[in-house]
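Most newcomers find our protein records easier to grasp once they have seen one. To make this concrete, we reproduce a full record directly below:

===
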Amino acid sequence: MPKEKKTLLDFWEEQMRQSHTASNYFFRKSPSHYHMMLLVMSAHKENKKLSVEELKTKLFKTSRPKSALIITEACEKGFFRLEKTSTDQRIKNIIPSESFVEEFNEYLNTLKNISY
C-alpha cells in the first residue's frame, strides 16, 4: 500500500493521540456525548432548528438531568451555543460554534478520504 494513503487504523490512532484536545475528548466520553454531537450536527447540516428540550428527548438512554449537564458542559467549552427564539424567549435552540463546525467538517473529510 502506498505510504500516502491513510487507513482507518492510522486515522483512529491519530485521533487517540489527539484525545487530549477538547472536542475530540469531550464527545468520546460516552455514547450519549457522541449521540448529542451527531444530533446537533445533523440538525445544523439540514438547516433545522433543534431546541434544548428536543435534544433532551432525542438522546436515548440518557436522563433529562444528565442531558442538561452534557449540554451545559458543551456550551461552556464553546462547542455549542444557545440561541433564544424570536417567537418564544423560553425556547432555546442549540447551535454549533463556527470553530466546532470547521473541526467536524475536517473530521468528516478525513474519514471520506481514508483508503483501504
Observations:
- The two ends are 9 Å apart (CA to CA).
- Strands lie at 80-84, 92-96.
